[in-house]
Amino acid sequence: MFLQVKDTNDLVKIVDFQELIDPNRDSVHAQDQEGQEEQETEIFKKEELVFPSGESLPLCWLDANYRKASYKKAS
Would the pTM count as exceeding 0.85? Predict the structure, then answer.
């Protein structure tokens, strides 16, 4: 899966999808997609990543307590 770094618009390839969707982790291992050679794996903060379309990552991937947070906002 490819995601985009917000500030630079660089594409990164997610190494472990389970790491990405785990809301208890705030960072992921990914490879920058520049040049033709495979790049070294780096750590990226999830908050710095978006889908290539510009859409944010789902809150349930970022916050283990997302249901409680959205409930508080609604009341």
Answer: no
Question: Is pLDDT larger for residue 7 or for residue 70?
Answer: 7
Question: Where residue 75 falls among pLDDT bands split at 50, 70, 90?
Answer: very low
Give 3's DSSP letter: E
Sheet (strand 11-14) strand order: 41-45, 27-32, 11-14, 2-5, 49-50
Terminal CA-CA length for the chain: 36
Distances (CA, A) of 38 to 12, 18, 25: 11, 21, 25
Residue 15: other Cβ atoms inside 10 A: 14
* The token pair that represents 31 in the structure block: 């490879």
Are 62 and 23 contacting, i.e. CB atoms less than 8 angstroms apart?
yes
Mean pLDDT across the chain, nearest whole number? 89
